[in-house]
């Protein structure tokens, strides 16, 4: 039963072959852009209205609370990522601190998170793209723009965007990071434009009462209301910064750049979210935009700026591929790390000599996301990504706390401030949010990991580098 607890070394790895290392090409601006690219996606364009409907003006407080939980997790990630600057994120930390079996569960959960998010965002992007296609080509075959669950044959736009992003990532980490950086700038300009247009209509009376539905969650007509209910939903607009830690091995100066990337992107996104929420509520009563599927564009349109509203909607479309890009990047690096450790077939850990990227695993990931996005209904399983995220956050915080107790004297390039408070706060916050997930999600998550454990027992348990060493 040694496979339950056998661990990799914190300072090195067993069984890694020559040429299986990733090329270090990223600086802190690339990492901040990766974080912002993942975090500032469709969530800010859609969840602002939903949060305002649940908490009223208290949605601003909900953004702050959700940001605080994620910030605590981000601080734990910053310590672990700089301590172990290798691909794999929470999987790698768990392997070195809590053992192979726990690491497998965390890695398997991360695979679920990243794959489902990539496919779901691809489908969301395809919805906007299909609308544009039909606008200019009314006779386009609709059966090729929807999966079988929606009466079509295959969702080709979703397949297209997933493979395009995979191809871009395969070309090179630095090249894809540059494209992401440009698209992130476009998104931030759009949000700054929204705030600039909304502020002249600001009315402080819209913030009274500040918490019309109270602080703690309570059901009203079958719907959970209150600031904390809104925070549980808003949380899902924040995650994505963990993908930065998967780039540890490709970072030029991990000690400095990872800290700036992880903490900086979280602080920046929290300020952006709170600023957008304040401008939205100040310009219009929450009840008037809470039900809109495009609340920010709706507000600007009602303020008499139809062209600007269209541009904000366009920015939402631009935002989606950056989310796919960052999460697919994270997925390939987790796959890569698990394959390099022998838990998955070694072929997936081959690095292309020219691009410095794991081309095979990148294209394989793009293919899986394309199949899911092109053929399957994703509505019911998207929340599985949230379960995978929370599991990774908890594992990282636990790894940080265990190492602080076991090896307090180990040199650390970044130290989580007040670790004995920050770590438990991150864990308890994530457990609270996990408890708020639908019971069906819990069941699917358990089924997914039961399948994963069977795969591990049949393959990884005997094929891993540690099993052979």
TrEMBL record:
Keyword flag Cell membrane: no
Transmembrane segment boundaries: 28-47, 59-80, 149-172, 179-202, 222-241, 262-287, 307-330, 359-378, 384-404, 416-435, 441-459
Superkingdom classification of source: Bacteria
Principal location: membrane
Record-level Gene Ontology MF annotations: amino acid transmembrane transporter activity
Membrane topology label: Multi-pass membrane protein
InterPro entries reported in the protein's UniProt record: AA/rel_permease1
GO cellular component: membrane
Keyword check for Transferase: no
UniProtKB keywords: Membrane, Transmembrane, Transmembrane helix, Transport
Any single Pfam family the record assigns to this protein: AA_permease_2
Gene3D superfamilies the record matches: Amino acid/polyamine transporter I
Subcellular location: Membrane
Protein name per the record: Amino acid permease
Species name: Caulobacter mirabilis
